[in-house]
């Protein structure tokens, strides 16, 4: 960061809204705690965020939009008032007209992501690098009010004595507060309301923030102290840190004025463009970002507008030998982020100027001692065209002038001068003691840092164990589910084994007593369909399987339509035995046309066992032969009917032609 203020040596909270809305009931926030090295992340509610801020007391709460923490200005003021004394709210994207967080992060080399946790981390890192505007709603004036802690309408004594005692307590407490403010050398004004026996109240307007006032708010006995910071008319913004190190500035004038600020090492600090800003506004913008020692343009000669900026800063001028071509400007700014061509031209001019002076900057830095302000030396050498040696001599002469003026005569010191000398020696001793204490603090900080690292490692280990416990619980739940599934499958298996044993018993696959039924080996299985419907056909197929060549028994053959008959025909049965009513004409036609034999069940002797049945092969063959005879007769009748119909149609057609 060159000579600029480095990252804050304290805790920074980056905050971005995770879900919900601050105007709603339950917003949640992504919070990143960053201390310059370590990063902790969490998602918390608004209430938990407030408790976290009160407990940790971070130096900065960083956000890309302050109205993610408050619904309106009044709530924002309330939020700022609730913050600890040493905590400030920082909007890293700017003041009244903030920029996109992605652009600010890219400009300052901070990693950015669109997820809330990534945005919160980017805000924290930007604020730690002193990027952003401090949000303030209060001035440096604080009101301290001392008043009655009890009502004067009640008391154990008489009314007058009770009132006099309370007013006397307010007076004594007011004088204590006044003495403490005086001892702290604080400027204040007081407004006292006198009443019977003392003061009704005393109001002190102190020119200091609350944390510098040696008085605490609260109630004690008959008195109460209230401390409230004076509210400003609106919300104000102050930059976290101003860059006052030497910089190189590029200016692109025109209808749109653009400016770019670059460090002496070529680091890009900021770019700017506006169609409405005047010269004063641009100069103010540049002053906030550093001390210009070189003002550059991308064309030659230098335009008059750019020359005005140069004279304003008494800076050196730089112009190229010829106007910079567009391709060179594009190449030089290829790694930079800018919004328009004007910013690109200003940035290219600044970068080329920094490149041109790079060797000179390096020589000045090498010749300048470490205890001398290098920025001042570089500015005077480059802008004032002085030599390094002359600038160093001049600075050295300024430091020794006072000593030379006091060596001309030796005289006796006055009492006041001796006291000053004694106090200076005392200051030296105290400063030495302070240095010793600072060393002790550094050692303790190192110890604390070591403990924090151990704590962080312990937290990581605890989180790892928690993940393992969650995984074990998940696997246990999965194991229990699989065990229940195994029990279900075992139960289904037992049911199927029982059914298999019944089937073996019926078809003599496992039992010898089947010979009592099938004494001559002349039995065939019969598969029963309770009703001639599609659902019944499908159910029988799923339970027992309907295969080609099966004998099918329709216990109720009535009511079937064409689709049901076709579904049965698709199984290719050997014969269909029916009872419980006649087939419908449609079903009878479908079965006949597909040559599926149909016979009454009375023609076949069927033996039923549970849900299964058997019939004699001889009866089945006889039924099929009977159907074939009936089918042949039916075909002859149908053929004769067709011939009669054709003859009738022919005769009718002939008579029609004769009549014409």
Share of helix, binned: 40-55%
How far from one another are the termini? 117 Å
- The fraction of residues in strands falls at 15-25%
Radius of gyration, whole Å = 50 Å
According to CATH, the fold-level topology of the largest domain is: Nucleotidyltransferase, domain 5
Mean pLDDT score, rounded? Answer: 82
Main CATH class of the largest domain:
Alpha Beta
Number of helices: 16
**Outline:** elongated
CATH homologous superfamily placement of the largest domain: YqgF/RNase H-like domain
The major beta sheet can be summarized as: 10 strands, mixed
Q: What number of domains?
A: 5
Number of strands: 21
Pfam family, one: DUF460
InterPro entries: DUF460, P-loop_NTPase
Protein name: DUF460 domain protein
Organism: Haloquadratum walsbyi (strain DSM 16854 / JCM 12705 / C23)
Task: Produce a short descriptive summary.
This protein is of the alpha/beta class.
List keywords for this structure.
Alpha-Beta Plaits, 6-stranded mixed beta sheet, alpha/beta, DUF460 domain protein, Nucleotidyltransferase, domain 5, 16 helices, 10-stranded mixed beta sheet, 660 residues, disordered N terminus, elongated, 5 domains
């Amino acid at each position: 960061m060159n000579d600029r203020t480095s990252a804050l040596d304290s805790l920074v909270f980056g905050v971005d809204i995770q879900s919900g809305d601050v105007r709603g009931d339950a917003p949640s926030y992504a919070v990143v705690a960053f201390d310059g090295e370590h990063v902790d992340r969490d998602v918390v509610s608004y209430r938990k965020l407030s408790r976290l801020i009160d407990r940790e007391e971070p130096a900065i709460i960083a956000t890309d939009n302050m109205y993610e923490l408050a619904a309106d200005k009044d709530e924002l003021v309330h939020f700022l008032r609730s913050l600890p004394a040493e905590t400030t709210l920082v909007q890293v994207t700017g003041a009244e007209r903030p920029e996109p967080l992605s652009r600010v992060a890219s400009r300052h080399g901070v990693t950015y992501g669109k997820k809330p946790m990534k945005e919160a981390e980017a805000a924290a890192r930007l604020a730690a690098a002193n990027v952003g505007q401090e949000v303030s709603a209060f001035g440096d004036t604080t009101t301290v009010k001392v008043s009655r802690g009890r009502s004067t309408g009640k008391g154990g004594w008489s009314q007058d004595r009770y009132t006099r005692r309370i007013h006397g307590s307010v007076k004594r407490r007011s004088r204590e507060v006044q003495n403490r403010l005086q001892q702290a050398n604080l400027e204040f004004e007081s407004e006292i309301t006198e009443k019977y026996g003392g003061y009704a109240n005393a109001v002190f307007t102190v020119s200091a923030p609350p944390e510098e006032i040696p008085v605490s708010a609260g109630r004690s006995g008959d008195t109460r102290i209230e401390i409230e910071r004076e509210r400003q008319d609106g919300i104000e913004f102050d930059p976290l840190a101003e860059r006052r190190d030497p910089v190189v500035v590029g200016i692109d004038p025109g209808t749109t004025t653009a400016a770019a600020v670059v460090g002496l090492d070529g680091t890009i600090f900021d770019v700017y463009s506006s169609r409405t800003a005047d010269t004063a506004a641009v100069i103010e913008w540049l002053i906030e970002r550093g001390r210009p020692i070189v003002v550059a343009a991308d064309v030659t000669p230098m335009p008059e507008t750019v020359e005005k900026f140069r004279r304003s800063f008494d800076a050196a001028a730089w112009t190229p030998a010829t106007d910079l071509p567009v391709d060179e400007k594009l190449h030089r700014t290829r790694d930079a982020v800018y919004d328009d061509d004007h910013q690109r031209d200003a940035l290219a001019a600044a970068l080329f100027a920094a490149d041109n002076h790079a060797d000179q900057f390096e020589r000045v830095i090498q010749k300048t001692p470490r205890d001398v302000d290098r920025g001042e030396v570089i500015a005077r050498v480059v802008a004032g065209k002085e030599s390094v040696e002359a600038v160093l001599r001049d600075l050295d002469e300024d430091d020794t002038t006072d000593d030379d003026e006091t060596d001309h005569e030796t005289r006796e010191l006055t009492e006041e001068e001796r006291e000053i000398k004694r106090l200076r020696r005392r200051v030296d001793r105290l400063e030495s003691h302070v240095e010793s204490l600072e060393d002790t603090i550094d050692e303790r900080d190192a110890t604390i840092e070591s403990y924090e690292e151990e704590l962080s490692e312990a937290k990581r280990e605890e989180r790892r164990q928690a993940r393992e416990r969650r995984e074990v619980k998940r696997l246990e739940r999965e194991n229990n589910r699989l065990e229940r599934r195994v029990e279900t499958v075992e139960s289904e298996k037992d049911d199927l084994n029982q059914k298999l044993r019944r089937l073996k018993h019926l078809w003599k696959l496992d039992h010898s007593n089947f010979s009592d039924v099938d004494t001559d080996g002349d039995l065939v299985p019969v598969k029963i369909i309770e009703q001639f419907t599609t659902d019944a056909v499908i159910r029988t197929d799923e339970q027992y399987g309907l295969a080609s060549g099966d004998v099918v028994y329709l216990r109720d053959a009535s009511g079937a339509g064409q689709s049901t008959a076709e579904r049965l025909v698709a199984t290719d049965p050997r014969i269909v035995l029916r009872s419980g009513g006649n087939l419908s004409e449609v079903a009878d036609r479908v079965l006949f046309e597909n040559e599926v034999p149909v016979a009454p069940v009375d023609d076949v002797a069927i033996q039923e066992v549970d849900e299964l049945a058997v019939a004699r092969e001889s009866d089945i063959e006889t039924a099929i032969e009977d159907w074939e005879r009936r089918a042949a007769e039916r075909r002859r009748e149908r053929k004769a009917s067709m011939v009669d119909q054709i003859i009738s149609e022919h005769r009718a057609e002939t008579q029609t032609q004769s009549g014409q």
